[in-house]
Amino acid sequence: MKKLDKLYEGKAKVIYATIDPNLIIQDFKNDATAFNAQKKGQIEDKGKVNAQISAHLFERLKEASVPNHFVELLSDTSMLTKKVEIILIEVVVRNIAAGSLSKRLGYDEGVVLKKPLVEYYYKDDELGDPLINEDHVEELSICDKETLDKIKAMALKVNEILKPYFASVGMKLVDFKLEFGKTNDGELLLADEISPDTCRLWDSETNEKLDKDRFRRDLGKVEESYKEVLKRVEGKGYRVPSKE
Predict the structure, then answer these.
(1) What are phi and psi of 4, to 5 degrees?
(2) How far apart are CA 17 and CA 30, in angstroms?
(3) pLDDT digit string (tens) for 14-39?
(4) pLDDT tens-digit map of 215-231
C-alpha cells in the first residue's frame, strides 16, 4: 500500500493517506515525550518496537472479538489501519496505583486496587489533557452516553484480556491508555496503539518498570526495557518459573 499525502503528525506517529479513503498508514516514530511534551527525547528503535507490539496485541484483541483498526504491518515501523475519526477522550484503565492516581488519592505506588478503575481525560494538549467525568463528556458534546458506555465496556474487556495475557509472560499490567474512533459508517473501533508508551508494565517478580516511566523518571535502560517487552510478547524472553 503506497503512502500518499501526510494527514497528521503527532508526538509518536505520522499519519498518511492511501489510495483507499477508508485506510491510512501510521508510521511509528522514535520520538519520546512526557509531561504533556515538556520533556522530549529519542528512544532508539522505539518506532519499530511499538509498531510490532501494537500489531501483536491488536491481533490478539481482534481474535477475542474486540473490534479495532489494525489491518496489517507494512514494514518494521509502518502499520496499515482503518481510518477513524478519533473521539476526543483518552480512556485510562488502572489495576494498580501508580503515577497521577497515587498523587491524587494518596496511595503508595503498587497498591492493588479493589477493582479496575476507568478514568476519562479530555484529549486536548493545550489544556493538558484534563481529567473529566461523564457529565463533562456530555457538556463538551464529545460523544453520546450510549457511545461512552460502549467505550467503557470495551476498555474493561481489553483489560480482562490483556491483564492475564501479560501475566502469562511475566508482567503486571499496572494501567494503560486507550483511544477509540468511529469509521465513516459509524463503527466504533479501538484505535491508536498499545505499547510501553501507553501501558505501565512491571516485571511480575521484581516490579522492575518496563515502560515509558523509565524515560519519564530518568531510570535508564529505556531501549532495553522496550525491547524486553517485545521479546516477551513474541514469546522469546520469558519462561514461567517452576513452582517446585
Answers:
(1) -110, -135
(2) 21
(3) 999 999 999 999 999 998 887 766 67
(4) 999 999 999 999 999 99
pLDDT of 238 above 60: no
3-class DSSP state for residue 20? coil
Among residues 229, 95, 68, 90, the alpha carbon closest in space to that of 160 is found at 95
Using 50, 70 and 90 to split pLDDT, how confident is the model at 2? confident
The answer to whether residues 214 and 225 touch, using CB atoms and an 8 Å cutoff, is: yes
pTM over 0.85: yes
DSSP for 186-201 reads --EEEES--STTTEEE
- Cβ-contact 138, 145 below 8 angstroms: yes
16 close to 7: Cβ distance less than 8 angstroms? yes
CA distances, 45 to each of 9, 51, 206, 237 (Å): 18, 10, 25, 18
Whether 200 contacts 166, CB under 8 Å: no
pLDDT of residue 244: 40
What would the grid cell of residue 163 be? 491483564
Cα 230 from Cα 222, distance rounded (Å): 13
